[in-house]
Amino acid sequence: MGNCLKSPTSDDISLLHESQSDRASYGDGADPDQEPPPPYQEQIHVPVYHPTPSQARLATQLTEEEQVRIAQRIGLIQHLPKGVYDLGRDGSEKKIRECVICMMDFVYGDPIRFLPCMHIYHMDCIDDWLMRSFTCPSCMEPVDAALLSSYETN
């Protein structure tokens, strides 16, 4: 049996040209035989936590003790009451109208969270704040002590 070589077709030639142009576009001094990068690489999102208010680290860089403290904090935050902002039926009720964290006015239907000191904030704003510092941003009352004492009295 003899070796049978197939003569290149126009499709084969166009594929060859595309392959060479792709390599040239990735070139910039790189090895021409190296595979080009995939067109889409999924980015893995690693959350950032604050073991202390002034310190931010990736979740993968936390010690076991810091992970436990952060998990406890997340659990406490989830026990804080939440609701939806409602100005009141006639709108004349004297209520807080602004989240002091983001400085934006509350809008009817905004998800809010109540702290034991009775201050209210946008839920996203206060949850992020409490992950850094477990005190009320308005009155500086420790949230965990007030929350834990409310469980002891029940």
UniProtKB/TrEMBL annotation:
GO terms for cellular component: early endosome; nucleus; recycling endosome; ubiquitin ligase complex. The keyword RNA-binding does not apply. Its main location: cytoplasm. It holds the Pfam family zf-RING_2. GO terms for biological process: ubiquitin-dependent protein catabolic process. Residues 99-139 form the RING-type domain. InterPro entries: RNF11_RING-H2, UEC_component, Znf_RING, Znf_RING/FYVE/PHD. It is found in: Cytoplasm; Early endosome; Nucleus; Recycling endosome. GO terms for molecular function: ubiquitin protein ligase activity; zinc ion binding. Keywords: Cytoplasm, Endosome, Lipoprotein, Metal-binding, Myristate, Nucleus, Palmitate, Phosphoprotein, Ubl conjugation, Ubl conjugation pathway, Zinc, Zinc-finger. Residues 1-12 have a biased composition (Polar residues). CDD domains: RING-H2_RNF11. It comes from the Eukaryota. Residues 1-42 are annotated as: Disordered. Essential component of a ubiquitin-editing protein complex, comprising also TNFAIP3, ITCH and TAX1BP1, that ensures the transient nature of inflammatory signaling pathways. Promotes the association of TNFAIP3 to RIPK1 after TNF stimulation. TNFAIP3 deubiquitinates 'Lys-63' polyubiquitin chains on RIPK1 and catalyzes the formation of 'Lys-48'-polyubiquitin chains. This leads to RIPK1 proteasomal degradation and consequently termination of the TNF- or LPS-mediated activation of NF-kappa-B. Interacts (when phosphorylated) with 14-3-3. Interacts with the E3 ubiquitin-ligases NEDD4, ITCH, SMURF2 and WWP1. Also interacts with the E2 ubiquitin-conjugating enzymes UBE2D1 and UBE2N, but neither with CDC34, nor with UBE2L3. Interacts with ZNF350, EPS15 and STAMBP. After TNF stimulation, interacts with TAX1BP1, TNFAIP3 and RIPK1; these interactions are transient and they are lost after 1 hour of stimulation with TNF. Interacts with GGA1. This is RING finger protein 11. It comes from Seriola dumerili (Greater amberjack).
